Here is the input.
Amino acid sequence: MSAEASPFDPRDVRLRPIRPDDKVLLQRGLANLSLESTVQRFLGPKPSFSGAELRYLTEVDMTDHVALVAMLGDELIAVGRFVRDPKHPHQAEVAITVGDPWQGKGLGTLLGDALVEAARERGITEFTALLQGTNRAAHRLFSHVAGQLTTRTADGVDELVGALA
Here is the structure.
């Protein structure tokens, strides 16, 4: 199902934990991202995931590595995750990717809010993220899920740290 096939209704989106059998859906989702979206998310081109990356991204413990997918029917349209920093157990790096046809429709906020709730339940009080300085949408989303931001910039990449909103 594509965004063009039928009108988008966010009430039809279902969030659920990622599963090991989502590898094909995740690979397909990456292949369907525009080059611009891929570069903004991965800070460079990313044509596909390796087998090891797919295992890492889908075989999560849901304690220190939490990943949620947004499903529209049988299509994976967005992914959000956080990974706890073992050196700073109260911190976790957060990342959210929304498929191009669904960007700007509130899915990032929906995933971000769910991740904040899951992080709090696990004793995490701060999110960190590496974002391209030019990725304004990701900066706005990070500001929504984490307040009291500190930012350090190097080579066009912003490293953000913020207390959970």
Remarks:
- Strands lie at 13-17, 65-72, 75-85, 88-98, 126-132, 146-154, 157-164.
- Residues 1-6 have pLDDT under 50 and may be disordered.
- The chain is about 30% helix and 35% strand.
- The two ends are 34 Å apart (CA to CA).
